[in-house]
Amino acid sequence: MSEHPDRPAVDPGAGEPPAPWASSGSPVGAPDTQGEPTQVLDSVPTAPLSQSFPPPPSGGVFGPPYAAPPPPDLTPDYPLVGPGPTAERSTGHAPGGFPAPGDPAPGHPPTGTSPAMAYPNLGASQTPARRSRLGAGALALAAVVGLVAGLLGGAVGSALVNRGMAVTQGQSPLPAPLPGATTRPEGSIAKIAATALPSVVTVTIVTADATGNGSGFVIDRAGHILTNNHVVSGATGAGEITVEFVDGTSLPARIVGRDSSYDLAVLAVDRTELTPLQWGRSADVVVGDGVIAVGAPLGLEATVTSGIVSALNRPVTAVGGDERSFINAIQTDAAINPGNSGGPLLDMSGRVVGINSAIARDPGSSSVGNIGVGFAIPSDQAAKTAQQLIATGKAEHPIIGVKLDSQYSGEGARIAAPGGVSPGTSAEAAGLQDGDVVVQFDGKKVTGANQLVVAIRAKNVGDTVRLTVRRAGQTVDVTLTLQASN
């Protein structure tokens, strides 16, 4: 089913893992030590050098039990690094747990030894004890020099960083935006929209019972505006019609002519310096062409949407009150909503190829809005009808001169019986009979009465067409000339 964006309708053609953070222990800028050998202290815990113990009691108070034990074995060439008994040697404490008289406190080197002997050196070489004093002094001097260098380096680095911060302080860390441009290339949607919008209007009607809005567009320099008939049909009596341009200017409008069958109406305003949109040829449109819908959906003026032509020659019958429209429609997926009715459907050159008129609705849904299936009146039909409405206030409808049976539910379109063929018409002259079922029109299959009417209305008065009818089990081909309705 399908419907006008502003009223219900039917469609006869459709039948009824991120990387981990760096360790917090590594300062920013520290050298990467991955892959370097790791230096490990001996596994036996020892007291730090700064730790002290109570002084040992004198020998005269405690007597022999606290006599000095033999001196510890301080072999000069024991390994200074690595596991094993050598790295776990005792400090030689007396049995009572206190150091013997003359012994160094735990953690302090024995007399004549260096701290490197009491604590395993972090180096990998073996150094004799006699060289340990020089090595310890060198290590201490290196540590002091390293500390001073580190402090100086840190101070210099801090000064450089602070100086750099002082230079950039108050400036944005982001680059400044480059100069922009509001011009767009020819053929772009933005360029087409900018050109078309001044010629598109919002149509508002006000009656004693209701207020509504739709869309329209300027078609000549004489102040004529084309829109849908169903947009303004409610204001044919005492209602008021106003059109608003994109610059905010509002002007009263009057109806020049309208036609419910084609769902078109022409309005006029007292303004002659308007720029009309250019007409395109809907006969040249193909499925897949890009299109742009412009209008005022839901009253939101100057709205632009885009899409493609989804299908052509889609037979659509739209119903509003006691009026029925027959549209051989262009189907598009460009968003069309209530209020878009009467607005232009543009090709990618900015020319009008259709007039937005109806949207499809799911038969099981009561909501009305875009579902990606919209319908537009082809521009070839709209331009021809607009000229007729301006000239005479009425549109010309081609007919074959028959009445169709609305109760028939079979394949094709059945001519009513009796009285289906009108006297003096093209149908009578061509030999059509009451009860004939039209199954083809110009070689295309006819599925129902509405589709046949749409196909006929898409033609011009005076065109010659060929019908295939089924009569009493036989197939008959009939050729006739379309005539104008009274």
Offer a quick outline of the entry:
By secondary structure, the protein is of the alpha+beta class. Helices cover 17% and strands 26% of the residues.
How would you characterize the overall build of this protein?
This protein is of the alpha+beta class. It is 17% helix and 26% strand. It is built from eight helices and 21 strands. It has helices at 59-62, 115-118, 132-168, 189-196, 229-232, 379-392, 426-430, 449-457, and strands at residues 2-3, 9-10, 200-206, 211-218, 224-227, 240-244, 250-259, 264-268, 290-295, 303-320, 323-332, 344-347, 352-360, 374-378, 398-399, 413-414, 437-441, 444-445, 464-471, 474-481, 483-484. The strands form four sheets. The chain has a six-stranded antiparallel β-barrel. It is globular. Residues 7-54, 56-68, 72-145 and 158-167 have low confidence and may be disordered.
Task: List the SSEs and their pairings.
Blueprint: E1 2-3, E2 9-10, H1 59-62, H2 115-118, H3 132-168, H4 189-196, E3 200-206, E4 211-218, E5 224-227, H5 229-232, E6 240-244, E7 250-259, E8 264-268, E9 290-295, E10 303-320, E11 323-332, E12 344-347, E13 352-360, E14 374-378, H6 379-392, E15 398-399, E16 413-414, H7 426-430, E17 437-441, E18 444-445, H8 449-457, E19 464-471, E20 474-481, E21 483-484
Antiparallel strand pairs: 1-13, 2-10, 3-4, 3-6, 4-5, 5-8, 6-7, 7-8, 9-10, 9-12, 10-11, 11-14, 12-13, 13-14, 15-21, 16-17, 17-18, 17-19, 19-20
